[in-house]
Amino acid sequence: MSQFAINLLFVGASFALYIGIAIWARAGSTKDFYVAGGGVHPITNGMATAADWMSAASFISMAGLLASGGYANSTFLMGWTGGYVILAMLLAPYLRKFGKFTVPDFIGDRFYSNTARLVAIVCLIVASVTYVIGQMTGAGVAFSRFLEVSNTWGIWLAALIVFLYAVFGGMKGITYTQVAQYIVLIIAYTIPAVFIAFQLTGNPIPMFGMFSTHTESGIPLLAKLDDVVSALGFRDYTADVDNKLNMVLFTLSLMVGTAGLPHVIIRFFTVPKVADARWSAGWALVFIALLYLTAPAVGSMARLNLATTVYPEMAGQVENYEEAAQNPILYEERPDWVRTWEETGLITFNDLNNDGRIQMYNDAADYSDRGWEGNELTVNNDILVLANPEIANLPGWVIGLIAAGGIAAALSTAAGLLLAISSAISHDLIKTMINPKITEKGEMLAARISMGGAILLATYLGLNPPGFAAQTVALAFGIAGASLFPALMMGIFSKRMNNSGAIAGMLAGLICTLLYIFTYLGWFFVPGTNMLANTPDNWILGISPLSFGAVGAMINFAVAFAVSRVTAAPPQEIQDLVESVRYPKGAGMAIDH
Amino acid sequence: MADDKTNAAEYWKANVRLIFGCLAVWAFVSYGCAILFRPLLAGIPVGGTDLGFWFAQQGSILTFIVLIFFYAWKMNKLDQKFGLGE
């Protein structure tokens, strides 16, 4: 069977599964549509949350980020997992107790203000739309690489599949397809990682293999990797970073952003009880960690594999790296997987010094003494995971599995985001703000139509990515962290927080964060309109625009606190509402004075 | 019903105390061990690198999992103790 046929089989089978689930789990009521009827088991929800959370970026790009950045990019690992700790303790159980369907629901009711609700809706839509574009383009890449269709067709196919199960099944359909998608993606991710860890270190468990001895050279894998990359002019893989303030703030931004992202929060509305929301967050992190603990092993091993593929003499015990660097492979003798990926343009070769050999090294380093005239091999980070099975010479079915896994990661996150967007439109905007008299049936129809509309918008933006599409980290995490997270947290933990304080805080956090981002990345990300070059020298106190979300959150807290102290306390029924979300058992007791 | 009210206030205080404790550990392993104190931990070797690197790429994530389950377990006990469980 050809590789194409195998890929088609795996991807086709996974689609059949998703559609089968969609038919089985049709939504009958708005409660089904928004929160899957509220009866999802905490472990099931944990698995669905993991798939919801782990996007095309986690599946495809995370290992590449770690491979290229080494220790410095540990921020993504800690940030995207540590957020679940604050979500589990500061938000999820109380919002579950509140018992409504959306994030703007809570903000609007708690701050007794439609202005607050509207700010929350806008933040939610901007963050989620930015996020969903990346999923559509990610699915497009996976389709075009593995199913040999054009990128455009790939995106339309992805949209069609999501349409089938999200529009009919709502949260109910999405929940159970996400469970299936999690299983597909985690198997696809770990199998090649196990093989590669075993080949390199003899230890089949990637998270242990990474800290074991590299069989071929007899020294620890990470020490070997440091030696190899520094011989090629790169920083040591495990090197410490100098700008610790920025590293701390970037990690914190990713954490508060994670906790504030609406498509993650609403998953915790689907479990039956408050206690379940707490357990469920723990399970979600277990399922996420299975991938995130493996990703650093995949990244480091792929980096070493790539370097020793180009410089075979560096693989074993090396006396002199200077000599080993003299003999990279001939371009004509490159392995098959390099040829395959050259066709996609994600690996490019340019023989600058015309010696017929591949010189791959840090372009910023000067190796003219070695007769090198520039780095000749450019490898896109995103291919590391996708090419892993080929690099490790694994059988064709593993490649088919990776194809299905990458697509599952993109689709599951896209569906969660689309639900967050459509429920903000049909429930918060239409039902709560515009037409409270709408019937249950009418709201269901509105929910389905806005879901369809959101899918069309996401598809259009996936086909014609605007400038901000590449700014998921800055925009989605910045907005969620600086605006939504503090408002939600204060709504629960401060009885004194009132409408004016919350609105002023959200706007201050949002505006400061956007201004800081636009200063370095351009107004609305239009290239060339940035007022300062985006270099560490220009950053205030060395804080990168991507790390500013944490500062924005602090501004939000400070402004909200100050404004709320000089304005009237919230009315009694709101203070009672705060009391009631704090206690798992019915609202009666706390309200009874 | 005054008893219920003090009871509820106690419950909330206990919850907030527990959260502070858990978040102190959360911050210590991630911002502390993995980032700020990494130079101090440089002397402790772990598989070809140091303890700080291990915390940054493995240890903090494992600690996060333990923290959430510990919190959920403690809160269940609190819910029962104060008769607030569902």
Automatic annotation (TrEMBL), chain A:
It is found in: Membrane. Its main location: membrane. The lineage of its organism: Bacteria, Pseudomonadati, Pseudomonadota, Gammaproteobacteria, Oceanospirillales. It comes from Vreelandella sedimenti. NCBIfam families: Na_symport_lg. The chain crosses the membrane at residues 6-25, 77-95, 116-133, 153-170, 182-201, 247-269, 281-302, 397-425, 445-463, 469-490, 502-526, 538-563. This is Cation acetate symporter. GO terms for biological process: carboxylic acid transport; sodium ion transport. Belongs to the sodium:solute symporter (SSF) (TC 2.A.21) family. Keywords: Cell membrane, Ion transport, Membrane, Sodium, Sodium transport, Symport, Transmembrane, Transmembrane helix, Transport. It comes from the Bacteria. One of its GO terms (molecular function) is symporter activity.
From TrEMBL, chain B:
It comes from the Bacteria. The chain crosses the membrane at residues 18-41, 53-73. Keywords: Membrane, Transmembrane, Transmembrane helix. Coiled coil: none annotated. Residues 9-84 form the Sodium symporter small subunit domain. This is Membrane protein.
